[in-house]
Amino acid sequence: MTRTGKGQSIRISPSMMCTDFLHLEDELTLFDETGIDYLHIDIMDGHYVPNFTLGPGFCKVLAEHSSIPMDIHLMIENVDAYVPVFAGFPDCVVTFHPEVCYHPLRTVSFIRDQGARAGIAVDPATPLESVKHLFPDIEFICMMTVNPGYSGGRLVPQAIEKIREFAECFKKSGYDIEIEVDGNVSWENIPNMIAAGAETLVVGTSSMFEKGINRKQNIQRLKALIEEC
Fold first, then answer.
1. What is the pTM of this model?
2. Domain span at 13
3. Per the residue annotation, which of 42, 45, 71, 123 is the catalytic one?
């Protein structure tokens, strides 16, 4: 965990869909050695978003070979059917998109009953007003700053102000909800995201997994940038 000069904790969550699958064990060893906070797992079903990505088998491998908590992002329909599959991994957090659930508060409780921290994911066009009723019951929120479905997406410019809007709401209302940002978390965008209230950074191809750059060097650069912020 990297701390800013103001005492705020900024956490790093590498997007595992961007990792080098041929050298996954080496990647996990590096993440352990450098103090990475979470492993971000995007679960896509080809329905809620048009892409297919990772699954429970991949999560099982990670749990067996790393003690880093998993940050599991369900970009799927029929969430309740899969909560038991994903929410039982040690110390994990599970986020879902509440608009796909008939009873999202029940889904939050279901995730907690399996032993995981429960959170929601919010698309760039989803307004605060439509999800504020969930705030008293969640511990985590994944703020999408791109349209979800693929790595390498373009930042939705108004998403930065939206991070600030949610952060101010949480502070004013006294909610202890961890704010994660997911989407084009690039070297250029990270300072603005942190300034707006981001506490956890999902890093992918625009920063940590930038092609042609040594992974360890990029982690060091990322931590230095966080300190500067």
1. 0.92
2. 2-228
3. 42
